[in-house]
Design goal:
Shape: globular
Number of helices: 13
Structural class: alpha/beta
Low-confidence stretches: none
Order of helices and strands: HEEEHHEHEHEHHHHEEEEEEHEEHHEH
Oligomer: single chain
Number of strands: 15
Distance between the termini: 70 Å
Helix content: 25-40%
Length: about 425
């Protein structure tokens, strides 16, 4: 029996009713556990802080602020506990077991501009400093974008000559030199906007524009550094770039120069249903006029081609990975009866290259992306100390190797 051909209206209604394609790291399933009851909840400008006293504490004594990262919509305390505590390593519980108070910083809109969410971070830092009467310094940092938000907040406080009482800054797989979403995926998001705009809205959100090393606003736009990203970088540089306190960071990618196995030009996604037949996404090749996507949705052929110029072979580079190709295919396969059957030949791609997470090189050339970080002088990094994962892992995966290393450095503060 031949596959039915759905109308554009049927597809639009089905997509609208079922939710959106959203590229986001972390657990895919809803939490099955309930987080501990917080000791306090702070209402902040543009955000919320959930406060959990450490074991033996009845007030803020040794505060650790942990900032949420990028996604769309408001932060979920359930999802944050699932990602940071209920996986391979109980990062939050271990901090509390050692007498550290955990302040989980969330945002009302995680895709808002970094400067906007930094105001929530600033409010949390100042309140934690005011309420902590023990004399201990604060520890402040975050995961993914959260590391940029807290970096900006601390740098701004120092630039304004405001005391922040912070003794250590940390970041967890944070894209200090930029993150990567394949141009083919970005193009698909914008090309499918008339059917459901949420994917395109995510790619074009202020935070996405600021974090991505290369961005396109329309499916046929020329890729480049977005103006919002350049503005953020300029503001950071004007304020000094970083807080002057000790800075540490971890990467979910390796430092050995070993890539994740994706080869330039590999066939990543193939549309097989009638509504998407002719759509293909490919891993990034270096050089000019490189085909990264053919796009066709519902409309008659031929498919539209998307090509890039001068980009490095970044999909396979060492770093924390994101299942961008797989997320897209899985979502489309929910509508296979409407002709959207899709196969992901490759599920993941490099999202935060190792060199970006440890702020040691830019992400613009193969030589930098695939450099052996383990063989470089650590002083080249803008971080004072860092560690890389033993294998290329999913972005922000909490492991004992990385999470335990951060806790050991926190304990060294006394």
């Amino acid at each position: 029996m031949s596959e039915p051909q759905a109308t554009e209206q049927q597809i639009r209604e089905a997509l609208a009713a079922s939710g959106s394609i959203i590229l986001a790291p972390g657990p895919k399933e809803a939490p099955t556990r309930i987080p501990p009851v917080p000791s306090d909840v702070w209402d902040l400008p543009g955000g919320t802080a959930w406060v959990y006293y450490g074991e033996g504490n009845d007030r803020l004594t040794r505060p650790v602020i942990a900032s949420d990262g990028f996604n769309t919509g408001p932060s979920s305390i359930d999802m944050l506990w699932q990602a940071l505590d209920w996986g391979q390593y109980p990062f939050l519980s271990e901090l509390r077991r050692r007498g550290r108070d955990v302040i989980i910083l969330g945002f009302h809109e995680r895709s808002a501009a970094i400067q906007e969410n930094a105001e929530a971070a600033i409010a949390a830092i100042l309140r934690a400093g005011a309420e902590c009467q023990s004399g201990h310094s604060l520890v402040v940092g975050g995961f993914s974008m959260g590391g940029v938000v807290t970096r900006y907040a601390l740098t701004k406080l120092e630039f304004q000559k405001m005391a922040h009482r912070t003794g250590l800054y940390y970041s967890y797989d944070t894209p200090h030199r930029g993150a990567w979403i394949p141009i083919g995926l970005q193009a698909f998001a914008h090309y499918s906007r008339d059917l459901n705009s949420a994917f395109s809205d995510q790619i074009n959100s202020p935070a996405s524009r600021q974090l991505l090393a290369w961005h396109i606003e329309e499916w046929d736009s020329k890729h480049g550094v977005d103006g919002l990203r350049q503005q953020l970088l300029d503001e950071l540089e004007e304020m000094g770039g970083w807080p002057s306190i000790p800075r540490i960071g971890v990467a979910n990618g390796v430092g050995t120069a070993e890539g994740n196995g994706i080869k330039p030009g590999d066939h990543a996604v193939e549309g097989r249903g009638l509504s998407i037949l002719g759509t293909h996404l490919y891993a990034q090749r270096g050089g000019d006029s490189q085909l990264v996507a053919k796009l066709r949705l519902v409309t008659p052929p031929p498919a539209k081609e998307v090509r890039t110029d001068g980009l490095p072979e970044i999909d396979g580079s060492p770093g924390g990975t994101l299942e961008g190709f797989g997320i897209l295919a899985d979502k489309l396969n929910e509508f296979s009866l409407l002709g959207f059957k899709t196969e992901a030949h490759i599920r993941y791609h490099s999202f935060v290259p190792s060199v970006s997470a440890v702020a040691i090189r830019d992400v613009t050339t193969n030589d930098d992306l695939y450099v052996g970080i383990d063989g470089l002088d650590p002083a080249e990094s803008e971080l004072d100390e860092f560690i890389l994962a033993s294998e290329n892992q999913p972005h922000t995966l909490m492991t004992e190797q990385l999470g335990g290393w951060i806790i050991d450095r926190i304990e060294n503060l006394g």
